[in-house]
Amino acid sequence: MKLERISSNKIKYSITFEELSERGIMENDLDSPIWNHLFEEMLELADQAYHVGESDMLTIEIYSFNVQELVFILTVGEADDADPGEWADPETLEQEEAYFFPSIEEVIALAGFLNQIGRISACSLYIFEDQYYLLQKPGTQNAPLILEYGERARISPFMVREYGIAVFEENALAELLKHFP
What we know:
Elements: E1 2-7, E2 10-16, H1 17-22, H2 34-50, E3 58-63, E4 69-76, E5 97-101, H3 104-116, E6 123-128, E7 131-136, H4 143-146, E8 151-152, H5 157-163, E9 165-168, H6 172-179
Antiparallel strand pairs: 1-2, 2-4, 3-4, 5-7, 5-8, 6-7, 6-9
């Protein structure tokens, strides 16, 4: 389970279906007390990592953006407890898809392939922790093609934008092809 702070009172957890299965949580176990144990563990982790403390109000939003994992957004406290400028709107969580590549060569190869078949789409390219991250809007239908060269990122596009270094902010693949034809 990976966690990431997205605002002063919101924590994002990513947990794979494999990890859920290891904990004994199955798809049809929605009323199982095992979920309570998972949520208690999530609160413990949040308190250890970010010192969120206790609150009378707790909200958990569950999203499934891909077939590999679930994303939980844990909100501790009232919505008014945080500065509205710090909030990440849950609807913006699906505005971009992030893919990572171990080296620039894979990104260049992807750009060449998409160019050959006329499917270059607008996207951004970042480097973060010695890996390259391609961020693009969902719905371009290039995801299966991108996955031939890279993998879905296990960190959010927000984290990549915040802590990564922009290589190309716009039209990254087209820009790469200008420099590496």
